[in-house]
Design brief:
The protein is an alpha+beta fold. It has 2 domains: 3-121, Beta Polymerase, domain 2; 128-226. Helices cover 56% and strands 13% of the residues. It is built from 10 helices and 5 strands. The protein has helices spanning 3-18, 29-32, 76-85, 90-97, 107-121, 128-147, 153-174, 184-192, 194-210, 214-226; strands spanning 24-28, 42-48, 55-61, 64-72, 99-102. The chain has a 5-stranded mixed beta sheet, with helices on both faces. A hairpin with a 2-residue loop joins β3 (55-61) and β4 (64-72). α3 (76-85) packs parallel to α5 (107-121), α4 (90-97) packs across α5 (107-121) and α7 (153-174) runs parallel beside α10 (214-226). It is globular. The relative contact order is 0.10.
Length: 241
């Protein structure tokens, strides 16, 4: 039995033990892709009858952590729209790319179709206000990173992190692509724009390994140029419309 099959067997046992009334379940994340490490948790999406309650839980089953995404059938459409609005589509991708663990009544199959339809439409575009605020934030981080001396390593490293995240946010949005957090940020970034995404990640690495901010600063400027350039004087943000 390979690692992927072992993870699927553990997840199936978990669902049977904790959710015998489940209408179906899917294993997602690294475990479903055969990329799990010994310490990886199991990401499991479980469909529940409408008499239950939608929620998110973390449990330990037979010594292994599992993050559970629990949704009633009635809540699925609204939850999927919420997941899409975040532009990450975490659970959408679990249903799209995950391994079916159990589907006695076809509910998982139909839920997969819903998820794939929303993924095909892509994430929502940034509003004008959201884009301008992100341009301003990235400009501030980029300018501070450029001006921070290498001797202030803690500040430099934190600024590099924020510059990368904001640049990834803008670039994926500009490309109409999904974004991510944690280990999914570089994966989604490279998928959205292989050239600029790689340059951003290499620039971030140059700060971490060599205290050299300029490759990241230069690439962040290239991202900003795609969306109107750096945002400095003239920017305004109103608390009320």
């Amino acid at each position: 039995m390979n690692d992927q099959d072992a993870c699927a067997a553990q997840a199936t046992d978990l669902v049977a033990a904790h959710f015998p009334h489940a209408l179906g379940a899917v294993l997602g994340g690294s475990a479903a892709q055969g990329r799990a490490t010994p310490s990886s948790d199991l990401d499991v999406a479980v469909l529940l009858p409408d008499s239950d309650t939608s929620r998110r839980e973390v449990i330990r089953h037979n010594g292994r952590l599992a993050e559970l995404f629990l949704n009633t059938l009635a809540d699925v459409p609204e939850f999927f729209e919420w997941d899409r609005a975040r532009r990450r589509g975490t659970v959408l991708f679990m249903y799209d790319q995950g391994l079916t663990l159990t589907d006695p009544h076809g509910h998982v199959s139909r839920t997969r179709e819903q998820a794939r339809a929303l993924i095909a439409t892509g994430p929502p575009m940034l509003t004008h206000t959201e884009r301008e605020q992100s341009r301003y934030s990235l400009t501030c981080y980029m300018d501070d990173l450029r001006d921070t001396p290498a001797a202030d390593r803690h500040e430099q490293l934190v600024l590099a992190d924020f510059t990368l995240r904001e640049a990834a946010h803008l670039l994926t949005a500009h490309r109409g692509a999904w974004t991510g957090i944690g280990k999914w940020l570089p994966r989604r970034l490279l998928s959205a724009d292989p050239a600029l995404g790689k340059a951003l990640l290499q620039g971030h690495r140059a700060v971490a390994e060599h205290a050299d901010p300029m490759p990241l600063v230069t690439t962040a400027e290239q991202v900003l140029d795609l969306v109107g350039g750096p945002q400095r004087e003239g920017y305004a943000h109103f608390w009320r419309n």
